[in-house]
Each structure stands twice: as C-alpha cells, then as structure tokens.
Write a structure and sequence with these properties.
Keywords: Membrane, Transmembrane, Transmembrane helix. By secondary structure, the protein is mainly alpha-helical. It is built from five helices and no strands.
C-alpha cells in the first residue's frame, strides 16, 4: 500500500485549501488588500483544517485499505480517495456551517482535485 499518497493528499489539501481561498478573496476584493496580510488566517485555517480533517483521513485510510485489498486499478483508487476527501470536506463544513462555508469547501475541494491528480499512486505488490 502506498500510504505516502494518502498522507500527501491529506496534507497538501490542508496546505493548499487556505491559499486558494485567500486568492479567491484577493481577486474578489477591490480595496487593494494585500494577499500576504492574511497570514494569521492561513495559520488558523491550516491548524483547524488539520483538526477537522482527522475523521475524514481516518475514514479514507480504512477505505484505502479496502480498495487496495480488492486489487483495483490505481486510477480508480486515486479518484475514489479524492472524492472521499471532497465528500469529507463538504460534510465537515456542512456541520460547521457559516457564511463562507461553501467558499471554503470549494477552495479545499479544488486543492484536493489538484493534489489528487498531481501525485502518483504507486502500486506495491507483496
């Protein structure tokens, strides 16, 4: 099993999600605010994103074991894991709710898609 792929998918989604959200805010605001002035938000989003994503990561790890044991194609496993993370993002933000929950969910989902496509899932046969 390629646990590195799963950990990368989880970690880089947490890293890139807030960045995509900040870029979206920067592009939508016309008051000339600096993109890098929101570093406190980024740190908070990274920490909270990590904490709130633990249940999704645990579910994805169990699902990953299930998929690997059924000898499915790597592309199918990558797609299933990416969709699992996206579903977890929306479920978590649905529970949390808030005025920008959908924007945050879309930002993290875009990050998960980019990361899921970018990294390679290695097939490890014993």
């Amino acid at each position: 099993m390629d646990w590195i792929y799963l950990i990368r998918l989880w970690l880089f989604t947490i890293i890139y999600g807030p960045i995509i959200f900040l870029i979206k805010i920067f592009l939508e605001t016309s008051n000339g605010s600096n993109l890098f002035s929101n570093m406190q938000f980024y740190v908070l989003a990274f920490v909270l994103g990590g904490l709130f994503s633990i249940p999704t990561f645990v579910f994805a790890a169990v699902f990953f074991i299930f998929l690997e044991n059924h000898n499915l194609k790597r592309n199918f496993i990558k797609a299933a894991l990416t969709l699992t993370f996206i579903a977890g993002i929306f479920a978590t933000l649905r529970i949390i709710n808030g005025s920008v929950a959908m924007d945050i969910a879309l930002s993290y989902s875009i990050a998960a898609l980019i990361v899921g496509i970018s990294f390679r899932l290695k097939s490890i046969k014993n």
